[in-house]
# Entry
Amino acid sequence: MKKKHELSIFIVEDNQLYSFYIDSLLSENFNYRISTFNTGESCIKDFNLMPDIIVLDYMLGTMDGMEVLSRIRKHLPETKVILLTAQKNLSIVAELMKAGATDYIVKDKEAPDKLVAAITRIANESGKSWRRFLLM
# Structure
């Protein structure tokens, strides 16, 4: 049986170990198609894949999360963006939310649960036929 819609998620994270961790976490919880990128530039090059959700770090090296978010809003206005970062500066957080981030999650011990909850909420709000797998 063919799936009606497979959730498409981009992970933009310069820490490869953390990127792998997020990928594993999401694969345990969702029916999805995932692409990982370690720079903002590499993510932007693949906008043609039309992700539903982008999980975006703020500190990415040559291009920060605000610049990537700005490009996402310009080229993929319907894509939901979840900032997942260690950045705790409240003025930066406010600026990111004002610029169109859907959610903001600080990398801490509660981040995995918050990320799964945020993606579940986005999927439910969108009305698309995305299924969450329950692990027993």
Remarks:
- The first strand starts at residue 7 and ends at 12.
- Residues 84 and 122 are 15 Å apart (CA to CA).
- Residues 129-136 have pLDDT under 50 and may be disordered.
- The radius of gyration is 14 Å.
